[in-house]
Amino acid sequence: MTHLRDASGPYFGEYGGRFVPESLIAALDEIAAEWAAAKADPEFKDELARLHRDYSGRPSLLTDAVRLREHAGGARILLKREDLNHTGSHKINNVIGQALLTKRLGKDRVIAETGAGQHGVATATAAALFGLECTVYMGAVDTARQALNVARMRLLGAEVVAVEAGSATLKDAINEAMRDWVANVERTNYVFGTAAGPHPFPELVRDLQSIIGEEAREQSISMTGGLPTAVVACVGGGSNAIGIFNAFLDDEEVRLYGFEAAGEGADTPRHAATLTKGGKGVLHGARTRLLQDSDGQTIESHSISAGLDYPAVGPEHAWLADIGRVTYVPVTDDAAMQAMRLLSRTEGIIPAIESAHALAGALDLGRELGPDATIVVSLSGRGDKDMETAMEYFKLGEPDRTDLEVMPAEEAEAVEKIGGDS
């Protein structure tokens, strides 16, 4: 019997595969073969475990968000704290593994794409640690809204290339990184940032991120005496989500929810709800679900979160949606921003805007499931990088600002009930 969590590429159902230039096939074959060998190599596994423990700071905590509970219908909310990892997000789990793999491949240069900058910072960090040359491609729009992360990458020694083509966001950054890889494949390894792209990247990234779910499953049982009612995560490309879902895929009693970016509304032209509104097609080397027009052309996505501003999704998510194992729900920019502020005020934790989409979804889900439910939320990253967006959204820099002016009445009552700001 094949377990869902053991599903592997090149295809997940009808999704996945390789749709790339012929010049990259050998490189992809080499990565797939080396990853299969590395997973079976005790020395590689020991070194990866040592780096997780001594460098990244694993295991990450599972935090009981006690004050958030009353906003979630009384449901218990447990936060899987990937924001506490070195570099501030789940991205380091994947990058440390792929950097080790780069050394096994005998290559001395890595390239990466990044949207919110978290994957770029993690790649620049690993490159510095392992002595690798590093180039990171980033959409020009994202370099502006994530300027702090651009500075971090440069300080770490990486070259950051601002991509002006197309919408100048993550999709275009991946296009440019692919072009670089084709031209320099002999000495360059592409450290792909999410569970998308051509085989073996969806499987490789899923494997490296599965440590999130393995820890969360064990910690949840230890903390509550059993499995959670539901596990939730935000979904852009889908790496943190597939990482935490993987350990629970064969636990039929555990509900799994992925919350994707509805932007200004999934029924408006400005969203990134690829599983809710997307169709089947090919993008960045894989068949998956993506946003496209009636002629099959990829259309621009929108999200206030740079990390979710991507018009496609990893092929395993598309498959899990089709077979009904995971439910995918769109969350608007505003709902995510309100959840970001709520967690900041109730728990003293400022989440990344990506993660705030999962929080907003968990709050609604908790109200639906009721006080007996336990919901594990993947808090995939911290919000330091998003402070400029938050400052603009909430007008935090205005000296005469009073927060209750923009707070919905229901939320204002809730804040007052739990003590407010004074």
Notes on the structure:
- The structure is a single chain.
- Helix 3 crosses helix 8 and helix 13 packs across helix 14 (353-369).
- By secondary structure, this protein is α/β, with parallel strands linked by helices.
- The protein has helices at 25-39, 42-56, 91-105, 118-130, 140-145, 147-155, 170-184, 201-209, 211-224, 239-245, 274-277, 315-322, 333-347, 353-369, 387-394, 409-417; strands spanning 11-12, 15-16, 62-64, 76-81, 109-114, 133-139, 159-163, 188-190, 230-235, 255-263, 279-283, 286-290, 327-332, 374-379.
- The strands form four sheets. A six-stranded mixed β-sheet has the order 3-4-14-9-10-13, sandwiched between helices. A four-stranded parallel β-sheet has the order 7-6-5-8, sandwiched between helices. The chain has a two-stranded antiparallel ribbon with strand order 1-2.
- The chain has two domains: 18-56 and 89-201, Rossmann fold, CATH 3.40.50; 62-87 and 210-394, Rossmann fold (3-Layer(aba) Sandwich).
- A hairpin with a 2-residue loop joins strand 11 and strand 12 (286-290).
- The model is unreliable at 414-422 (pLDDT under 50).
How many structural domains? 2
CATH topology of the largest domain: Rossmann fold
* CATH domain class of the largest domain: Alpha Beta
Q: What's the number of helices?
A: 16
The appropriate CATH architecture of the largest domain is 3-Layer(aba) Sandwich
What is the 3D shape?
globular
Give the strand line-up of the largest sheet.
3-4-14-9-10-13
